[in-house]
Amino acid sequence: MRVANTDDLKKIVEGCATVDGQVKVTDPAAFRGEVIDRLVYNAVFANSSEVRGMARWMIKSAAMDLGIWSASIQGLYEAMGRGDLKNEYTVPAVNIRGLSYDVGRALIRAAMKNNSGAFLIEIAKSEISYTKQRPAEYTTVMIAAAVKEGFCGPIFIQGDHFQVNAGKYKEDPAKEVQSVKNLIEEAIRAQFYNIDIDTSTLVDLAHSTLEEQQRLNYQVGAELTEHVRKLEPEGVTISVGGEIGEVGEKNSTVEELEAYMDGYEKAVKARGLVGISKVSVQTGTSHGGIPLPDGSVAEVALDFDTLDKLGATARKKYGLCGAVQHGASTLPDELFHRFPQVNTGEIHLATGFQNMIYDSNFFPASLKEKIYKGLHERFGDEMKAGQTEEQFIYKTRKKGFGLVKEELWTLPEVTRNSIGLELENKFDFLFKQLAAVNNTEDVAKHVVSAKIAPDLAVETEMA
Description:
Layout: H1 6-12, E1 17-19, E2 23-25, H2 28-45, H3 49-65, E3 68-70, H4 74-82, E4 91-95, H5 100-113, E5 120-124, H6 125-130, H7 135-148, E6 153-163, H8 166-171, H9 173-189, E7 194-198, H10 210-231, E8 239-243, H11 254-270, E9 278-281, H12 304-318, E10 323-325, E11 344-349, H13 351-359, H14 365-379, H15 389-396, H16 400-403, H17 405-409, H18 413-433, H19 440-446, H20 456-462
Parallel strand pairs: 3-6, 4-5, 4-11, 5-6, 6-7, 7-8, 8-9, 9-10, 10-11
Antiparallel strand pairs: 1-2
């Protein structure tokens, strides 16, 4: 499926699109067939950066011609904060770690089925590394998925947990902050127009006052917000998120939220900046859930009352979209309908879908065996004392996607479609439970993010 040069890429679209200073799609149905599949495969796996970059540019340019573009959700979140939306709903933010084109397609099909335009497709700083998906590739794949499924409208791509490492910050603050700034720059160039800044790792509970505990969190958060604002393209106000407490640690309080937000708002106003549109809080969950010795996941005591109070304060006092709930994909199905009722603006969902892929009856047993063997070979030193085999595999198999990336992409079509249908049904359920349905009019009304055309030179450089 790989092509040798950019002329061969142009031959792929002959008869359904023209390629000049931009791509004009003349036969949308044909373009959405085998053509987009071949383009996106080369955008990821072609041997040369020239071919990968050209394929990425062609996909993004064609998408714009078909009414699909990468955008910021800022305007919608501002409307949430003002209480301007007719209905309460929680925006799902889905981390896609592997089988990415097919999972993206499944998510978009579910969104279209529910007439939903408000959903985020995201990847965390850590995931970028272990899944081998740099931002420029990730954006292209998700836009290609939207093209394939006939979606029309803005696509919200998000950088999740662009996090400052506390240990590295302690050793060299400037170097660690610069590393996050570098990732922010890479992501924005790749058309990530939604970025969650996570400086909650710098919260120091050793201090006696909440303001002192949160000081580094809001100061470094404001510094990184300024970096985002300097880089955002004309006509785009990137939606930036903040965080007040590490997921998996102690539950957040309203007083902590106020200490963070008061300090942060003062810092960004002094710089003349637009601040965050949302704030992530801790209410009892952990990323991926807590695996038990048999590999099952422990029940979580999620504190909805605390979530409600935090979200209400975020909206009414600071004009944010509400609170953001992390680590939620492994929660029981019967809980999800409650999030729109408790001022939850956004919910992050990841590991549950990863588990569905691995545990699907359609996932090849031989490939799973190869992945698990590779996990022991590559990451066996991460196995902790007293940890069972099942716990080790559960905690590390997220890294398996990067080990067999191309093998996942090239699974038989019937296998990928079958897994995709299972995921689509789950996404469909979640859209309904989160009340994130029939909101395309909200998106059309409130999202004013400019349509930024791709640059061939930038795409090639980043490929």
